């Protein structure tokens, strides 16, 4: 009995080890097949990893693995922190993934795109030594230690969104990602729909234009539009859009305090721009009000009060802008008076 | 009546002298650069223009037109005649020729230096004419005075800043003036002049596309808002036909005038205006009932034709990869375009979007006045004033996208602010006049009134003319105007009485007036400060103030002078492209690349050489026949825009074409540094070696004042280059390539070692 039990034990051990060897031999292609299956399941081609998947696809297989894996570290609870841009970066990452897969005819087995969520796979985060987000990491085929031998994508590499991520991938893996396929803003159906609506609408519009009764014939609309565009431009809103400036910053020393005005002329914050744009515009509007509207008011006291109000506000606005400009740029604007005056 | 005409004559003479003074102001405020530095051409591009002008004055117009320049882009060369906007050069050349034939022997350089201030005076007069057409002479004078000293324009037109914008802004304003003039008069004479002014603008600056898009936009706006008139047709149709033909004569534009998308708007509107003109014509000859039938017919046919044309246009446009638009125009339409797709455009500092302080710096208090001017243009809205509104709105939007286009905004801001200021002054002074104690006799009132009523009468005349739409009987127009004035005469008294009621409270008006004058004074102080301190540095001569007085750094001219006198005429000098124009203009030596960055590969070759180790660099330079290498180094005096600071661009551009140059090799942990932590690639590249060769001998430590650190590699020898000249402050260093080594010696050495 004892013999048989030891036999059994031996047998089972042999069987097990043989099995494991076989599974080892098989597993490489199996793992790839699994990854491909997972990839086809996800919409953008980004495979969702958890702790088990990490150990299965990354830690347990022997190096060199037949594939590289690029991992996006995500945290749902941080999605609403806009300064991290996690959600946008995740979208861009998905774009790179889908473009890569499409450009390689859905048959690439060398590189897989994955993401890991912080809440559900904290131990993986520890495994990679990730303690700040956004964080993207490339695990090459021969990387044994996930923490030290995988490559982290620099801030600079995802600053230019999908294109620069693709460059990073291309430079490290020697694979070609190809052009990024961004989804068009309007789908084809929408475009057709809009064209049809326009075609139907155009005869009516032309008729109205000839009759002269559209909104376009109302100068007030044009006036409001012109002043608004002026306000929009002088407030530097274009700068905010192009540079993706936030409306305000949180003070680093004191998280409860908010910074609305940024010192230094090369940059501005959103709220700051609108505030000064408002000051720029209000003076002109008040001046126009006084010269074109107030003169027709009959009541003398009303005139006086309104004018004093306008003078006061304009004076304050101009003074404020001059003060802010001096503070922000640090230029010492001075007159050139005769030296005997000093 | 005689009293009135005397008054008008006096006003005319006064305006003339005011305009003269404005011209003097515009000219003299731009002379700070000459007074503080010297009469010298500024920066980079002006040196090219200067060299072209020299060639023109020496060889004549035909030689200039066919000029193939073999002194740049060696060994490729460059066709100059066909690739430059010739307006500026021809203008300065003509001025020089005129002065010389009058026996005034000015040098070409002097003429070039003062071209920009002269044209600023012209520009302010053109502003007067334009604003006068829109809102009368008072607004015109104010606008001209504002434009004479607006900082944004000063920044591009100080004495010595001999660049295209110097004449182009005048051409821009003058073209707009002639357009408005044609629109107000309906005269073909002005329409022809307008086309010629447009031709001058096309000759001068690539910014002419702004005109050829803005005017069609205005025409379309007029049509859409039901303001079509035969005057509009006369103002627009000749401009498109003649203007396009003339524009195609300029070699650099050529067939682009009909083939690129920038011009398509004008052709589209050209079609539209003909359809509309046809409709109005039919309306005129048919009875209302017949017209209704005709309208449906014409509109349906017109729509079909329009759709077909638009479809063809879209197909044409879509077939080209950039949709027919140049990258710069596209980044205006979609501001985020450049930052996404064209880093080289996005990287240029003058293509950055401005922040609010830029507006305060460049148009100063005008930023406060513009909204009032916009509103004034709407009360009442005329063809001319709607054009001004469109101009300010488009230009302010464009300036929001690119700080460089602030230059186009400046005239518009001056015009609207001039209108706002003059109307405000009008209201406040009127209020004061009618409420001052002692001024009550109607006689004086009447006398004071006439000047402003006549201005108004003129405006009214324009207005009625428009509404009546009877431009057929042109000869009778003058008589009608007279009639109008006569009609108005009796009513002046009643009007004066009405005006008295329209007055504002006395003391508030006085305060407002004083505040407005203070605002104007602040503007003057700011402009003078900007002209004197911010915008007049020639950047070829540098100065710095320190506790022991003024230091002048004239190293650039020292170096170019050395090259001119100590090297052979046909020697080739390699440097980064920034210094190409200056080297050809001042040293008269052949360069490999220059500021006209038309060939990226060639620039990348130089960039690669600069970022390679000595031997590889020597081979590259030797293959290009280069004899001398020039580097700019600011480490000793703290001049920040030197070659070490530009070096990463050389690496990037070089690496873009030659992949063995990789940016990360020059960075330590993503940081660009030249101290002991720098990578070995960085410390061994040619740029590092040429910049810091023997640098440690200056202070014993090798402390770089720009990077604020001690350099990484202090003692080294050059194997393939030898230092031949270093300027006084070490700002320019010139090296000579050593001749190739004797092959025999190498062989003997080898045998010895064996």
Automatic annotation (TrEMBL), chain A:
Classification via Pfam families: OST3_OST6
A single BP term in Gene Ontology: protein N-linked glycosylation via asparagine
Coiled-coil regions, chain positions: none
InterPro entries according to UniProt: OligosaccharylTrfase_OST3/OST6
Signal peptide: 1-25
Description of how the protein assembles with itself and partners: Component of the oligosaccharyltransferase (OST) complex.
UniProt function note: Subunit of the oligosaccharyl transferase (OST) complex that catalyzes the initial transfer of a defined glycan (Glc(3)Man(9)GlcNAc(2) in eukaryotes) from the lipid carrier dolichol-pyrophosphate to an asparagine residue within an Asn-X-Ser/Thr consensus motif in nascent polypeptide chains, the first step in protein N-glycosylation. N-glycosylation occurs cotranslationally and the complex associates with the Sec61 complex at the channel-forming translocon complex that mediates protein translocation across the endoplasmic reticulum (ER). All subunits are required for a maximal enzyme activity.
Gene3D superfamilies tied to this protein: Glutaredoxin
Entry membrane topology: Multi-pass membrane protein
Record field: transmembrane: 191-210, 222-242, 274-297, 304-322
Transmembrane helix found in the keyword field: yes
Organism of this sequence: Corchorus capsularis
Subcellular location: Endoplasmic reticulum membrane
UniProt key word Endoplasmic reticulum: yes
Protein's name according to its UniProt entry: Magnesium transporter protein 1
Automatic annotation (TrEMBL), chain B:
Residue spans of biased composition, Basic and acidic residues class: 462-476
Broadest EC class assigned to this enzyme: transferase
Region entry Disordered, spans: 440-492
Annotated Polar residues bias: 440-457
InterPro entries, alphabetized: Oligo_trans_STT3, STT3-PglB_core, STT3_N
Pathway(s) this gene product operates in, as recorded in its UniProt entry: Protein modification; protein glycosylation
Keyword field contains Transmembrane helix: yes
Membrane topology: Multi-pass membrane protein
Protein name, UniProt field: dolichyl-diphosphooligosaccharide--protein glycotransferase
Organism: Corchorus capsularis (Jute)
Highest classification ranks of the organism: Eukaryota, Viridiplantae, Streptophyta, Embryophyta, Tracheophyta
